Amino acid sequence: MDNIIEIKNVTYKYTDEDKTVAAVNRVSLNIERGSFTVILGHNGSGKSTLAKLLNGLNKPTEGEVIVDGINTKDEKYELEIKRRVGMVFQNPDNQLIASVVEEDVAFGPENLGIEPQEIRKRVDDALKSVGMYEFRKSAPHKLSGGQKQRVAIAGIIAMTPSCIVLDEPTAMLDPKGRSEIINTLIHLNKDKKITVILITHYMEEAETADRVIVMNDGEIIDDGTPKTVFKNVKRLKEVGLDVPQTTELLYALNQNGFKVDTNVISVEDTAAAIAAALEDKKD
Amino acid sequence: MTILEVKGLTHTYSESSAAVTDAVNDVSFGIEKGEIIGIIGHTGSGKSTLVQHLNGLLKPTAGTVLFKDEDIWKNPKEIRKIRSKVGLVFQYPEYQLFEETVYADIAFGPKNMGVSGDELDGRVREICNIIGIKDEYLEKSPFDLSGGEKRRVAIAGVMAMKPEVIVFDEPTAGLDPRGREDVMNIIKNYREASDATVIIISHSMEDMAALADKILVMNKGKLELFDTVENVFSQGERLRAMGLNVPIVTRIFAELIRRGINLPENVFTVEAAVEALKKLKEEDGNA
Fold first, then answer.
1. Which of A221, A265, B16, B164 has the fewest CB atoms found within 10 Å of its own CB?
2. Residues B37, B197: Cα–Cα separation, whole Å
């Protein structure tokens, strides 16, 4: 298997008022190149700390993080690792700096010392890939939250990363902005083959992922496909999480004497499963 | 009894800055005492601007806001008085905590209204009891609390003023699922313990379906719809055109109806969906 990131028995500790806290505790995890992974966990579960370990923003207290064969502790490759694993954060307003969209997207490649012609091409391609090309001359502050966040993603894409890590990129967006971001990420993953790691509190956003990882108290407590992870409704609720409303309905139906297939998540599949269960009754 | 009435409210930001879409344009509606009103609309639709008029934080460019039939701007020098009657919980209210202790932060609002002594102490403790802030938290610094706990303290500070109307601007934004559930429960508990009128801005159609009596839909600064949950969420196409949607269960039911299954369209919560499907199953069993 071709892993883009290998996390080997990593612990990350920090000191808070004389107490040493392990925000990430002996975690081992491989991320397959080209995959779409969602990380879930309540606030304080260690998922943001884990995200920052992936591109060297945090260095492991114990253990190692290997990106494309490079150890994140190797200072020689610090910038190269940050280029390969780009990060997008929650608040789009804190991430955009230039007064024109295309200048903002050009900022990263300019810092890398890329030739101007190549920058022009990368900026255009990156903006097209997030559906923001027609706004290239706009001022970022005039854009909606979802549009700003897509510009922030374009800024990462322009550095031609192999992997993009997003820490709650949709937390401050309205439903339309949220679906814009998710559709953009699906496109970048499927069509541009970029590895995506998405941290979110919205369970519906995990629906289309290849893999869902659940963190609690600095440890990984579940790891599987969305269907297998969301089956465990009780456990998820115990660790302060939730399931998509589709799963919640199927779960409630089975508790009320229905025999519905719970191995589905999307609205269409859920309706099909309920329809099938109703059909069965008639026979 | 109509507790709040908004008539022809227009708000234009100074023309040199901000986009036109941020303004509120000729909006009129009335809210009855004790109702729970959900406000939905895309970012920039004017929701936040609208609610900041309800307690006099913003002054209308045109139109009036009436609290119990009286124009809140009748005597502009006394505009502050309305703020204890119509409490506003801002987005990310925890950023506004500043006192040394949780107790002092919750007491700040009522103290400013002139409440003191035993009554003040009673109010702080009553609110903490209703929303589940334990005694041992009261002497802590608010800055030592988790994000969800800080939010709770900030909300308690507004509730301690015992406003007759309490307005929440995206009270669950940025919280994890348990934090979101906690805040929704706090609002429900407060509502049961007081007879306050509640107005909530939210992006969660599911939360609004479960909590609100009526829903007000803002779109591009205009009031697009103001009606019962049922009458609003039965207009899926119209909502989607505005960048909104109906609750997920309602979408599942629409799909089942499309497949020719005889189910009601007006199902907006998981509980109602289970009931409707049970009923259908029983009817089939009897056929």
1. B16
2. 8
The confidence score (pLDDT) of residue A282 equals 54
The CATH class for the domain spanning B2-230 reads alpha beta
CATH 3.40.50.300 domain span(s) along chain B? 2-230
Residue B65: both structure tokens together: 């806001």
pLDDT digits (tens, 9 = 90+) for A108-160: 999 888 999 999 999 999 999 999 999 999 999 888 888 999 999 999 999 99
Chains A, B: CB contacts within 8 A come to: 107
Number of domains in chain A: 1
**Domain annotation covers residue A9:** yes
Q: A160 CB contacts (<8 Å, ≥6 apart)?
A: A83, A122
pTM greater than 0.90 = no
Return d(Cα A145, Cα A172) in angstroms, integer. Answer: 8
| Interchain CB contact of A144 with B (< 8 Å) | yes
Domain with residue A152: its CATH number is 3.40.50.300
Res. A90 pLDDT band, cuts 50 70 90:
confident
DSSP A45: S
Domain-located, residue A150: yes
Domain with A145, as residue range(s), is 3-224
Chain A contact present for B193, CB below 8 A? no
Q: How distant is the alpha carbon of residue B92 from its chain centre?
A: 14
In a domain, A92, yes or no: yes
A245 interfacial to chain B (CB closer than 8 Å): yes
Complex confidence, ipTM: 0.85
3-state SS assignment for residue A90: coil
Residue B21 has pLDDT above 70, yes or no: no
